[in-house]
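Hi there,

I know you've been waiting on this one. I reran it after we fixed the sequence typo, so this is the corrected version. Both the input and the resulting structure follow.
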Amino acid sequence: MKKFSILFFAALLVVAFTMPAAALETEFGGYWRTRFFTEQNFSGEDRTEARDFTWVDTRTRLYFTATLNDNLKFVNKFEFDAQWGTGDTGDIGTDGNAEFEIKHSYADFNIGSVNAKLGMQGATVARGFLFDDDFAGAHVTFNGEGFTVPFLWIRVNEGSGQNWRAGTKDDNDDDQDLYVLNPSFAVGDASVNPFFAYWTQDSIDLDVYFVGVNVDAGPIWFTGIYETGDLSKTVEVSAYVAALGVSMDLGGASVNAQVFYATGDDDPLDADQDAYTGPPGICYYWSEIMGWGTFDWDVSNGSPAGTISNIMAANVGASVSPMDKLKLSANLWYAQLAEEDALGNKDLGTEVDLKATYELVEGLNLDVVAAYLFAGDSTTMEDPDDANPYELGARLSLSF
């Protein structure tokens, strides 16, 4: 697969440099970052050191877009990852086979007022409380005056897999899909985005519906989602998530706050699923330790991470630019489970996040992060050697 990916990338470069200039416009871009970080006591105890972790990695993304005409583009994004001291690219020599990925590859074209993107691409729905990931599928948008009506078809799973030639009659029953109707309207100075999503797979009787709305009105935003349907023949789901936030620019400073709540399951033994259960691809980043954050490698014990479910979290924060090229930010988070864990606890803890961003040279940014979680009982699981998780790290990044 890696050899095929490299050959595919090389072929694109050949096409880009050999086609007549009048026939093709090309655009190159990219992103690079290297991270140095350590995470300690994420298990909520310091007896086993089971999840203590120190790591350095590098990620490179290269973007290539071929514009054939005003209504047709061919978009590609490639990714190379290297963990320092691991594998061919991170080991001595560094010239082995990279972890090469074709992140995006899709056709982007317009037919009248309709734009379509077909292929491997990315999308965000409901700020990530429903979906924020890459996928293979279609994104078709009707653009009207003052409104847009996007429709997404996300192929979650292909039932026949790689053995379709030897497949059986019912292979399509294992196909899993997510369909999203995601219109957006301007209402005065506000933006209103009602949406409807359907998550389905016949073989397991998966029929789940999401109905919700995003509202952005000046500095205030809101997202609400209600989930209903069947996760299987015997499990019915009825759940919701709600989030409210504000972000205000005060010139050289800004303030922000948010709160979100996602239902949990109040009785795991009954046939009802009360916990909010998003489809594959749900991902909402929030705090540094409990919610992925800058380094998105691990989260503290007990937290649902970006897969928001069975949680209530609240945040207040501020940022200031005391000098040119420097930004300082601080955030305070509190989180607890919506329903008690197996030991009867809810409290995940209170987290302090500090971050400094400085432009070392034009185009090259340095982020320095320090985070500390005053762990609650749902993080420590009442371990006699309980310990507070903390994280320290730095990231260098550039984009072009």
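Quick highlight: The radius of gyration is 23 Å.

Best,
R. S.
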